[in-house]
Write a structure and sequence with these properties.
Layout (H helix, E strand, L loop, with lengths): L1 E5 L6 E5 L2 E4 L1 E2 L6 E5 L7 E6 L4 E2 L15 E2 L22 E4 L1 H4 L5 H5 L2 H7 L3 E4 L27 H14 L3 E6 L11 H4 L3 E7 L2 E4 L6 H18 L4 E4 L13 H16 L4 E4 L21 E3 L1 H12 L7 H4 L2 H11 L4 E5 L4 E4 L12 E3 L4 H5 L13 H12 L4 E5 L19 H16 L14 H6 L10 H19 L12 E5 L4 E6 L2 E6 L5 E4 L5 E6 L11 E4 L3 E7 L1
Parallel strand pairs: 9-10, 9-20, 10-11, 11-14, 14-15, 15-16, 16-19, 19-20
Antiparallel strand pairs: 1-5, 2-3, 2-6, 4-5, 6-7, 6-8, 12-13, 17-18, 21-22, 22-23, 23-27, 24-26, 25-27
Helix pairs in contact: 6-7, 8-10, 12-15
EC number: 3.2.1.141
Organism: Streptomyces liliifuscus
Main location: cytoplasm
Length: 581
């Protein structure tokens, strides 16, 4: 078997494979690359020593059976016999479901999660978005401090379990998206700097030195990231990738890394004959992220829209601190602006940033499906001090309104696991660092962060306490009981409407019309012949919808269609979807 590794600054490279040790030779055709052959098969352990140093895992390791600090293992991807013929499922018309493997079930494995995919089919979602799966220290964590960007966290089940999960999802008609982290690697178990200039001091991120995308040696670093992305799509048959915090990918080159990545994915999609897509998490409010390359954009296919979330959150909760401040001044106006313009910050002043931020979308060119809309995500829940969901503080009626605005709005909807039944479990920040000093630093940092916002230390869960993860696991006894069952039925009803009402999949943002009353807290919008009205106030609201005949498609509380005066009487903290025409 041929082994290879990029180590441009090394004088000697040694391969340790099973019980053999042999020197690698410089590749005469690729500067900085070392190659050699050794007997190996699926499961064979191996590693590399740089200049007679310690044996380290392969930067392109496909498996880390003993965790990030252990030896790598060979993976023969041809051994798995795929059961499902899959022609792909694109993003237009999608409803996504964000899922964390370690807490979706108490078992916290890919196989256990696969056993619960039938719930998602019944719910009506089209794609499962898995939070990061790369290896990280310990057993439990969010996954955003992973290393070995080509491998699968072993406690989740490793490579074979991931293939079984994707196979089962495709068998059920579900697309699968993977959250990948290119902007940093975890501090523990990260051996890339020993091999080459994977990081640079030219730029810095909240996590330290930036990944090297534009400094000397960056050609190979970019190829490393591109190869990892394509490997997930090829070897595991993912339908798309969600790219974490692309605003932290610092790149001054003429061809931005994201443009190069989108071109590579589009080419691979053509070769495979199935749709593939990239979804950015972007804090830039920059239309170029989702503008096609032929129009001088970066060519990503969609992005998360935090502006919609922030506007909706302030309207529902009244919170107006931190980055919510600008949205909280006129919450319903903020919701209305995002529903019709996509971005709230489109060149406006951001008090949180202390400067102008964003740029307007061209509504004649940008399809609404390229923005993902959501009421809750792992970030917006887990980065709260106690990981409390909206269900911890809002009435059932307001939860129903949040669902209506998300699932009938113009954006591609995304749910966070458990949201669909108003889960009573929190989703908290948890880690399982094996380095005691790092564990203590994370614990102190978490408490210090929230102490600055008035939280008592004892009220901030200890990330390292196993109970923190355990509290965050979904309770699968909830969905069929009481209020949880009613909320679940509401989500199913709204998702079914989205799939059956053509106006709800219309990608034209310019055709969305919104009216609202900030004082009485109602908002209504029109998409074709569909009218959606929400009343966030406690008192009934009189909402003018026009005199065209109407019928109720879905209602949280019983409601009569508008009378001859065209006014809808909507109960407090309730919502309705109507068809007029």
């Amino acid at each position: 078997m041929q082994f290879e590794v990029w180590a441009p600054q090394a004088d000697r490279m040694t391969l340790h494979c099973a019980d053999t040790t042999r020197a690698l030779e410089p590749d005469p055709e690729r500067v900085g690359w070392w190659t050699g052959e050794a007997e190996a098969q699926d499961g064979t352990r191996y590693g590399f020593a740089v200049d007679d140093g310690p044996v380290l895992p392969d930067p392109r390791s496909r498996r880390q059976p003993d965790g990030p600090d252990g030896l790598s293992a060979v993976v023969d991807h041809e051994r798995y016999a795929w059961r499902t013929e899959w022609s792909g499922r694109g993003l237009p018309g999608a409803v996504l479901y964000e899922l964390h493997v370690g807490t979706y079930t108490r078992e916290g494995t890919l196989d256990a999660a696969a056993g619960r995919l039938g719930h998602l089919v019944e719910l009506g979602v089209t794609h499962v978005e898995l939070m990061p799966l790369c290896p990280f220290p310990g057993r439990h964590g969010w996954g955003y401090e992973g290393v070995s960007l080509w491998a699968v966290h072993e406690p989740y089940g490793g490579p074979e379990a991931l293939k079984r999960f994707v196979d089962r999802a495709h068998e059920l008609g579900l697309g699968v998206v993977l959250d990948v982290v290119h902007n940093h690697l975890g501090p523990s178990g990260n051996y890339l700097p020993a091999f080459g200039p994977y990081f640079t001091e030219t730029h810095h991120t909240p996590w330290g030195s930036a990944v090297n995308l534009d400094a000397p040696g960056s050609d190979e670093v970019r190829a490393f990231l591109l190869g990892s992305a394509l490997a997930w799509l090829r070897d595991y048959r993912f339908d798309g990738l969600r790219l974490d915090a692309v605003h932290a990918l610092h790149d001054t080159r003429a061809c931005h890394f994201l443009e190069e990545l989108s071109a590579a994915v589009d080419t691979f999609a053509e070769e495979q004959g199935r749709p593939l897509f990239l979804i950015a998490e972007s804090d830039l409010a920059d239309p170029r992220v989702i503008t096609p390359r032929k129009e001088n954009g970066l060519g990503l296919h969609a992005q998360w829209n935090d502006d919609f979330h922030h506007a909706l959150h302030t309207a529902l909760t009244g919170e107006a601190q931190g980055y919510y401040a600008d949205f909280g001044r006129s919450p319903l106006a903020s919701v209305a602006k995002t529903l019709t313009s996509g971005f709230f910050h489109d060149g406006t002043y951001s008090s949180f940033r202390g400067r102008r931020h964003g740029r307007p979308l061209d509504l004649t060119k940008v399809s609404a499906h390229r923005l993902l809309g959501y009421a809750q995500t792992h970030d917006q829940i887990g980065n709260r001090a106690q990981g409390d969901r909206l269900s911890a503080s809002l009435s059932p009626g307001l939860l129903a309104c949040a669902a209506a605005l998300t699932l009938t709005g113009p954006f591609t909807p995304m749910l966070f696991m458990g949201e669909e039944w108003a889960a009573g479990t929190p989703w908290q920040f948890f880690t399982d660092h094996t380095d005691p000093e790092l564990a203590e630093a994370v614990r102190r940092g978490r408490r210090r962060e929230f102490a600055a916002h008035g939280w008592a230390e004892e009220d901030v869960p200890d990330p390292q306490d196993p109970a923190t993860r355990d509290r965050s696991c979904l309770d699968w006894s909830e969905p069929e009981n009481g209020l949880h069952a009613r909320v679940l039925d509401w989500y199913r009803e709204l998702i079914a409407l989205r799939h059956t009402q053509p106006d709800l999949s219309d990608p034209d943002l310019a055709d969305v019309k919104v009216a609202f009353d900030e004082r009485t807290r109602w908002l209504a919008f029109r998409r074709g012949d569909v009218r959606v009205a929400v009343n966030l106030g406690k008192d009934p609201a009189a909402i003018p919808l026009g005199t065209r005949p109407a019928r109720v498609l879905a209602a949280w509380e019983p409601v009569e269609v508008p009378g001859e005066d065209g006014v809808l009487s909507l109960p407090g903290e309730s919502c309705v979807v109507l068809l007029q025409g």
